[in-house]
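Obj.: predict assembly geometry.
Materials: sequence records (below).
Method: joint structure prediction, all chains together.
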Amino acid sequence: MNASATSAPARHAVGAVDEFPLDEFRIFRLDDRPIGVVRTRQGFFAVRNRCPHQGADICAGKVSGTMVPSKPFDYDYSEETLVLACPWHRWEFELATGKSFGRMTNKRLITYDVEVEGDQVYVAMKKGRA
Amino acid sequence: MSIVDCEHHVVVEKLDDLAPYLSDGWLARLSMGEFAMPRPGPHPGAEIEYAPGQGGADPAAASAALPAELSHAILIPSQPLVSSGWLGHRMASVFSSAVNDFVADRWLAADSRFRFAISVPAHDGEAAAEEIRRLGGHPGAAAVCFSPIAVNLGQRHYHPVYEAAVEHDLAVIVHPGGFEANVVGPAALGGVGPRTPEETFCLLPQVAMSSISSLVFDGTLTRYPQLRIAFAGFGFGWVPPLMWRMDSEWRGLRVEVPWLTEPPSEVISRQIRFVVDAAVERETGAWSLAGMLSPWSLIWGSDIPFAGGGIESLAGCGEAARNRILEANALDTFQRLKVTATVVG
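Observations (raw structure tokens):
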């Protein structure tokens, strides 16, 4: 399922909802960019498959909640804070915003909007960025 | 510009000197059996550095030897540091208290520039906190001092000590006790020795590294944001690579210490200080390492009556940094020095 376009489309169809296993990225090449799309309990997310730290294929990393700031040894695991952890150095990026969780870096993971219509999933490419 | 000496050691020459500050029962206990006054130097082989009569045992002589530009000297009794190697924890507490009273009584009256670090044994956190509260209100008190035991400094064991110190605006000074690497009790040096004083000095940073890692990753410095800890006698050249590595590992392992919401190097820069004393790096190259630390990280200590004593340990340091190390950083670390104290012996 590669929906690479010929005439700068606003979005790409990437498949049916049930083709996306929970929390596992599928990688597409869209407008000549490697883009991972994932279905989570909070909905679909799409990100550039490149860690802003050292360029790893970040979509091979784990999608999960994470530990949020707490008092020492009062671990507080938040399912709501959905992050993608890079497989190389475990730096975490928020799926919703692309921001580094815990301010490890000011660089952001590039994110894309995902639209679901009926059972079809579309990735919307951003102007000037796609 | 004035100078603050953050590490001026004091030696008690004989047990009789402590008699007025011990109960009759404890004096009898210490006078019998095999109790001997600890050696004056808390380093194996310290006899090569210290000779009786050098000044550390005589308040008047020490006062006369102070440089004119010196504004304060923080007195750190050497012998209670050695008690980290004692298995008699209660004895260590009693001995430290007697030395504290001796110093407050006999030394502070000798020179208005003298302040003292309250010696506490690290074995017993509650007893240490009691001692800090007993003497914390003394106008001559400027710090708390102990030597490391095998429990790393970030552990809950020390929380009562830190709480009492913060309560009284007292910074904590950590200084080697001389028993590092022994089997029971004191903090261990990895792998070898020490078999010689030289090896001891080479390896001592390991103890401080373990405790700094513990203070940061256990969230202890986060728990006590006002706490300031100065490491005396450990040098500083090893600190930049430690900070670099801690930052690097923290970025990947943040989930295991989520209470640490900023890079370890920032916490260390804000709350930990290192004393530039006679025991530290003197090569010019050391100052390029110092340049990798926060401008506030270093303070100066004479290490009197041991080797050195003068500010020659700052040779090669740039003037602006030198001025900070000699005065401003110390006043920032030891808040109580800012209070003009009238000490009545």
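Conclusions so far: Strands of chain A lie at 11-16, 26-30, 33-40, 43-48, 62-67, 77-85, 92-94, 111-117, 120-124.
To do: check interface contacts against the pulldown list.
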